[in-house]
Amino acid sequence: MREYNLAVVGATGAVGRMMLTVLEERNFPVKNLRLFASVNSKGLKLPFKGEEIEVEALEETKSFKEIEIALFSAGGQRSLDYAPLFAKDGAVVIDNSSAWRMDPEVPLVVPEVNPHAVSQYKNKGIIANPNCSTIQMVVVLKPLHDFAKIKRVVVTTFQSVSGAGQKAINELEVQVRAWCKGEKIPSPQHLPQLIAFNCIPHIDTFLPNRYTKEEMKMIEETKKIMELPNLKVTATTVRVPVFYGHAESVNIETEKKITVEKAIELLSKAPGVVVLDNPEKKLYPLQIEIAGRDEVFVGRIREDFSVENGLNLWIVADNLRKGAATNAVQIAELLIEKYL
């Protein structure tokens, strides 16, 4: 098997480190691996396949030639600044930020849903990795839509603090420890409100339409990935005091009726989906139990009796893995299988 020269940009962040883990777990054919981060991380060494690889300063690097695939998780501005430079030097960039997702020339890809879109990488040399909450939802929606044509989606998310980065993880831990000791809980520094023992209906900034950017990402990305520009989607995104794993309550309306039995049959056969649904045995997906898994889990499947053809779903996935790193590596696997 041919091996490829890879780069991970933003390698020292939570998602960047997970990308290294997933690349190693899936035995991606890596010939040479270069790691990039900010100048503050220059010289740090990260483990990969028994070796210690030194981190380079992105800002100090003048050429990216010979890199064939670059996995980016370095934030939107760095992606805007550097992804075109990597692409110019011959790399295909798979970007985890929101910078390129809605660019009409850049494919937005979830391999279980729209693998054919990978071919559009030739436009700009960039492939966008969707929002973590969008990824897990569309993996479940795809087989249901193929059977019954979805008309409307209503989603409320319950997103873990790891989606906001390591500083948010630390903030939750510090607040919980203070509460348990009977100490004054420190004021929030990295999240908009106190997160310990609390739910915050505010992820990213608010827009003039009173939705947050996170909510609008889910709305517009779902339409693009599923190639349904007229699909009706509305979202409420909520940060919850959970370390890893995002959960979603999803309600769909379809043109054709889907019974619970049919939905379970369709989802049980769908790639990347695991059905955990047995109310009598208290079996349903839980964030604390799916951490470290690459599949998307679905349960609490039931008909919505308030509309003619409605279905309720509870969807859970590890946001650092399938919601970010694993999906990016799966895109890279598709790329080398069919195009490179």
Overview of the molecule:
- By secondary structure, the protein is of the alpha/beta class.
- The protein folds into two domains: 4-129 and 324-338, NAD(P)-binding Rossmann-like Domain (Rossmann fold); 133-319, Dihydrodipicolinate Reductase, domain 2 (2-Layer Sandwich).
- It has helices at residues 14-25, 76-88, 132-148, 166-180, 213-226, 260-269, 287-290, 321-338; strands spanning 4-9, 30-37, 45-48, 51-57, 69-72, 92-95, 126-128, 150-159, 232-239, 246-254, 273-275, 296-303, 310-317.
- The strands form two sheets. A seven-stranded mixed beta sheet has the order 3-4-2-1-5-6-7, sandwiched between helices. The chain has a six-stranded mixed beta sheet with strand order 9-8-10-13-12-11.
- β11, α7 (287-290) and β12 form a beta-alpha-beta unit.
- The longest helix is centred in the last third of the chain and has 18 residues, at 321-338.
- The two termini are 12 Å apart.
- The model has no long low-confidence stretch (mean pLDDT 97).
List keywords for this structure.
alpha/beta, Dihydrodipicolinate Reductase, domain 2, 2 domains, 6-stranded mixed sheet, 8 helices, 30% helix, globular
List the helices and strands and how they pair.
Elements lengths: L3 E6 L4 H12 L4 E8 L7 E4 L2 E7 L11 E4 L3 H13 L3 E4 L30 E3 L3 H17 L1 E10 L6 H15 L32 H14 L5 E8 L6 E9 L5 H10 L3 E3 L11 H4 L5 E8 L6 E8 L3 H18 L2
Parallel strand pairs: 1-2, 1-5, 2-4, 5-6, 6-7, 8-9, 11-12
Antiparallel strand pairs: 3-4, 8-10, 10-13, 12-13
Helix pairs in contact: 1-8, 3-5, 3-8
